[in-house]
Amino acid sequence: MTPAYEYDIHIPSHIDPNRTYPTIFTLHGKGSNERNMYGIVEPLSEQFIIVGIRGNLRLGAGHQYYELKSLGNPVRDLFDKAVQDLEAFIAYATDKYPIDPAKRYLLGFSQGAILSMSLALTMGDQLKGIVALNGYVPDFVKTDYILKPVTDVSVFISHGEYDSVFPIQIGHDTAAYFHERTTRFSFRTYPTDHGVAEENQRDVLLWLAKDAGLTSGQDQEEIL
After folding, report:
1. pTM, whole model, 2 decimals?
2. Residues near 18 by Cβ (< 8 Å), separated by ≥ 6?
């Protein structure tokens, strides 16, 4: 199979050939690339396999996974294809690399967060968890897609209090939507615009390490 996306993969340097590893698939924002996302999770690169997925559509000097009719209004057929292609890519990578299928995480920012949440709703417990930074769930995903339960999916959602792209109310509405669907849920806001603050990054890293069962308590601090 030829994957629909170009990608970077970072495998722990002292990998054990007899085991599989928890894995973070990163999805970048519109006009960005996979390298920008790696910096967020690099401190976990010896505990997780990290797969940075590059959007397959060019946008200026960067990339995107789908195009927009207007802000917050994806081109439906391109969005649908991105969801299908990303599901297929996750399966492809799981077969090709020593990825633990029971510990697969998506971490996305903005457009990547939108896709991460949509994929959680279509893949259900095929994912261990998602981290969605400054995004939302399109209405057509909620009404038109075949949704799977996310009861067993861990969800970390964060949003900038001064987000000028997706106002903070969108973050609260998105959090309420997932809070009704899983108890394994965390929502946090940060005094930022449309970005990822240092405190936000730290909270994400600690959350991922804990949820994957890699560390706890003081050991979590040492991983960072």
Report:
1. 0.95
2. none
